User: What shape does this take?
Amino acid sequence: MKFISFALLLFVTFSGYSQARLSSVIGTEADLILTFPEEEMLTYRTDQFVQSTNQRRQFEGSVQSSRQQNTYRQTSNNPNSQTSLTINNTVRFGQVETRFKDAEAIKRLGYDQLLTRQVGNQVRAQKMENGREIQNHNWQIEANAIDGDLIAILLRGLTARRRLTSFLAQVFTKWDGGNYEMAFSSETLRSLLERERQINFPPAMRQLLQQNPNAVAWSMGLTGPASFFFPHKFYFVFEQEAPHRLLATWGGPPERANYTWLISR
Assistant: This one.
């Protein structure tokens, strides 16, 4: 989800929390993949802040996924982009291909396709235009880091296995090649909404959340001194019961936040 990467690239990494590190408690990651359905098709609606116009717009997108043993594939498609990913035995990194559709975004980025994959302790990225490579990068990643594009998938697996309620992890963002120390914690959606009453949800999204008070809500935010400069968090809400589908996600500065919620399953 790009709005996460945009926020993360602005801040430096700090650590020192007493929470458990994800790498020390996650166990066999392939076991998390086995919690996902063999086939799934979901439809979401997004309320997006558009920086160039300083206005908001809504659009729908689909997420189609399949699992064969320890290999998981997912394709997300919306008017802005199409992202296809494949992960094998790990929910932290995979092969990801993003094709951009929005002409303004392509002009701003300078490319229309981004391919990334992990090779050892590096992430290799290829920027493409009209099927031709125009730039490539090899970025170092921290041991046991998480690809920012796979956070929702990882948290879904952890929700299913009910192993953790809080942890620390390095999150890698391919938009700038940075590694960021993030703190994750979970609670019931009811307790989150009681505490965060000021969030201005789109009406349809608020109704969905109110209908699922026992859903599992994960928060993600920067750690240490950086959190004082950027106190905003990102949230991921999952069904309490199997198959623990992602119900909604949002976050970042309130005036520029993007909101996405499930509308059909």
Notes: Residues 145 and 152 are 14 Å apart (CA to CA).
